[in-house]
Amino acid sequence: YSIKFHSCHTTLQFRAEGGGGGSGDEQGGEPTESMRLVHFKLCPTDSCSKGCRKGADYLVEMREFVESYLEFQMDQKEYNCEKVEENCSCDYDDSINDDDVCLSKCYAAAGLDYCGQEENEVDNFLECGAIGENNNNNNNNYYASSATTYVGAYCTNNGIYLGEFSDRQCTKKTSSGAYKSY
Known about the structure:
Layout: E1 2-14, E2 32-43, E3 56-61, H1 62-87, H2 99-110, E4 129-131, E5 149-156, E6 159-165, H3 178-181
Antiparallel strand pairs: 1-2, 2-3, 4-5, 5-6
């Protein structure tokens, strides 16, 4: 079976606290919050490109969908790297004395340029998190502004992406591009 992304939906739900409205309220006093949902289908792999008529439909929160997808991708990459490691042998090449260099050559030969690299931290921004909050000190040249910018996941007909927003709900996209340059 294969997963076929279908669409995204956003609904508003009332907060249990009612939003409060006090100056110390972390959510800015809004009584509602957006719930982002992903509609996907699980269909037989051989029929997935033909419209997936025989599959099951699922509707889950976007964060759960993306976390599961990223975890699967990470596990798959780890498995691929381990397989190359198991079959990597540089005994035939006397010019390679360093195991890391040997492994790098094996990874390159297998077309796995991601092996041995740091893990992607994209999952840190799935919740609509603030970057550069009231920060004027040029955080390593990545972000310098007096306004708070938020980064979060958003959905299009073509899939799910990370974007830059001006509000804590990640509903008002910005065009400044500070996150993109980061």
